[in-house]
Amino acid sequence: MPNGDVVLKVNNLKTYFHTSRGTIKAVDGVDFEVKKGKTVGLVGESGCGKSVTSLSIMGLLPKHLAKIEDGGINFNGVDLTNISDRELRGIRGNEISMIFQEPMTSLNPVFTIGQQLSEPLKQHTKMNKLEKKKRIIEILTLVGIPRPEGVYSQYPHQLSGGMRQRVMISLAMLCNPKLLIADEPTTALDVTIQAQILELIKEIKDRTNMSVVLITHDLGVVAEMCDEVIIMYAGKIVEKADVKTIFNLPKHPYTKGLLKSRPGMSQSGRKQKLESIPGSVPRPDEMPIGCTFAPRCPFAMEKCFSEKPPLYQLEKQVSRCWLHENEGKEIF
């Protein structure tokens, strides 16, 4: 491993999309690491680069459009950007697994659950048919699916949304991965099922000491699940810290805006008026010259509109804002 218990190290990752309208810098210089047994949350509005970061790690980018232009993705000492497709397939689904946000589009409607769960075992193990079925029933039971023998023979459309997401977790957990990437795993589910799915991921993580990258825009989920939090905006990291620091001592204006926009209650028990961040995320092909958040920022100065801020190392976190110019040490 590159550093003790570091399972994944993403270094200066730049993933660009080359379109007819020009180059879109979907992920533009992202750095973070995930330690063994820890959960790191990637947080931000739609279009900030969270999912593209995860697809870059998994090697699932559309090759005709997207390319990793620079940077490294180091998993257990292996640079995933410098290995063959065959080597990557050996790692993907085996040592690194992913749960996608919409299980109905991730599961094939024409194959039974048993057939679909057999595929990774066929690729990554030498189990016979009977051993594969036994392992699948075992994992379906583990994720709390009732009547696993019956579900084994059913098709995705015969299951509820919560059950399908449990199947997706089973699929991800079949080969006991070291790293799980969960991309908005509860988006399409009702609140009760959301809580059950999150609790299930937490239980499996604690039992297996697996590392998790959790992609979400839900700060309630972050508070419940994460050890460290990375706030992304327009393809860049704007703040990074442990979960307590993010909630108790946010530094970047965007992080403060996200936290203020959470539903809350006043001390008298009355619902408080929801605050919102003015404006909208800039289009990927029309990024501002200076700080990408400046047009929406209540603290923006003249310098913010003309120069891009670097990341500053502060006492408890890193933050990409000119407000910290005299307070922190410039990292890059």
Structure notes:
This protein is α/β, with parallel strands linked by helices. The chain has a single domain, classed as Rossmann fold (3-Layer(aba) Sandwich), CATH 3.40.50. The protein has helices at residues 50-58, 85-91, 103-106, 113-124, 129-142, 148-152, 161-173, 191-208, 219-225, 243-248, 253-260, and strands at residues 6-19, 22-35, 39-43, 66-75, 78-79, 96-99, 179-183, 211-216, 228-233, 236-242, 312-313, 318-319, 329-330. The protein starts with 5 loop residues before the first strand and ends with a strand.
Structural features:
alpha/beta; 11 helices; nine-stranded mixed β-sheet; four-stranded antiparallel β-sheet; Rossmann fold; single chain
Topology:
Blueprint: E1 6-19, E2 22-35, E3 39-43, H1 50-58, E4 66-75, E5 78-79, H2 85-91, E6 96-99, H3 103-106, H4 113-124, H5 129-142, H6 148-152, H7 161-173, E7 179-183, H8 191-208, E8 211-216, H9 219-225, E9 228-233, E10 236-242, H10 243-248, H11 253-260, E11 312-313, E12 318-319, E13 329-330
Parallel strand pairs: 3-8, 3-9, 6-7, 7-8
Antiparallel strand pairs: 1-2, 1-4, 4-5, 9-10, 10-12, 11-12, 11-13
